[in-house]
Q: What sequence folds into this?
């Protein structure tokens, strides 16, 4: 089977997990899959971000389109060497890639493939399903489609997110963002906080889903208090108390501790306060 026949076959059998696939069918499609992902990086104009493990729109789109046929052909290839397609789930252990690559390179075996043990199916399937979902969500957080899970410097914030902040009157067009973090799950507009050259801005949605914005000038900050230490699962909470000239008595910051970037955020606040 040549390259074109392999791609045509795998796309025709888009979600076919039964049957077998030859070595040529499997490896030609893997070549096509990797070409598609590379094309996605190029179309995103995203090579620099790719090296920093950030993901663009086209890369995500191609991943979602070709993920199922890739899993399906892997399943059929394992059938072709007498193994159950469920064995590809051992890839989540990383070391499991070694026997998988060996099996993918193995000649066809006419023996009927063996079913995976029932206990393994009940353990591996739920764990791998959760892993795949988390992997996809993790990839989405590296695009403007979902908020990043960590604090970003202004230079790292996407153009799309900046436009959202401007259009919703959270920042002005000329504001220079130094640090930004949104605790939103699906959109940055759910809530967040940021630092510009002269102020801290905190925003969030009220009960009527309207965005409320609070700002406090650095010159009007009296004290910074750490109210709650953060963890892997919880944001750190800081209370920024204003002086008598501040429009707000205080504002609270909910900051991700990932990479200890909450400390960078707060250190920038102290730096601006002392200027």
A:
């Amino acid at each position: 089977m040549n390259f074109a026949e392999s791609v045509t076959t795998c796309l025709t059998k888009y979600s076919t997990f039964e049957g077998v696939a030859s070595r040529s069918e499997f490896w030609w499609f893997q070549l096509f899959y990797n070409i598609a992902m590379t094309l996605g990086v190029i179309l995103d104009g995203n090579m620099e971000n790719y090296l920093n493990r950030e993901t663009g729109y086209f890369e995500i789109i191609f991943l979602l389109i070709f993920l199922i046929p890739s899993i399906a052909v892997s399943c059929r290839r394992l059938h072709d060497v007498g193994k159950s397609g469920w064995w590809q789930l051992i890839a989540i252990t990383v070391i499991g890639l070694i026997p998988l690559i060996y099996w993918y390179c193995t000649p066809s075996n006419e023996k009927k493939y063996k079913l995976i043990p029932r206990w393994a199916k009940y353990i591996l399937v739920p764990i791998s399903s959760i892993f795949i979902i988390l992997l996809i969500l993790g990839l989405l957080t590296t695009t403007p489609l979902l908020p990043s899970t960590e604090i970003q410097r202004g230079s790292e914030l996407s153009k799309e997110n900046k436009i959202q902040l401007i259009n919703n009157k959270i920042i002005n067009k000329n504001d220079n963002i130094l640090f930004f973090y949104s605790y939103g799950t699906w959109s940055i507009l759910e809530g967040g906080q940021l630092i510009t050259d002269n102020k801290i801005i905190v925003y969030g949605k009220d009960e009527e889903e309207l965005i409320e914005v609070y700002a406090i000038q650095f010159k009007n900050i009296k004290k910074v208090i750490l109210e709650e230490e953060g963890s892997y699962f919880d944001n750190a909470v800081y209370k920024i108390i204003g002086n008598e000239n501040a429009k707000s008595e205080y504002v609270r910051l909910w900051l991700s501790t990932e990479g200890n970037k909450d400390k960078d955020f707060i250190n920038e606040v102290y730096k601006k306060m002392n200027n």
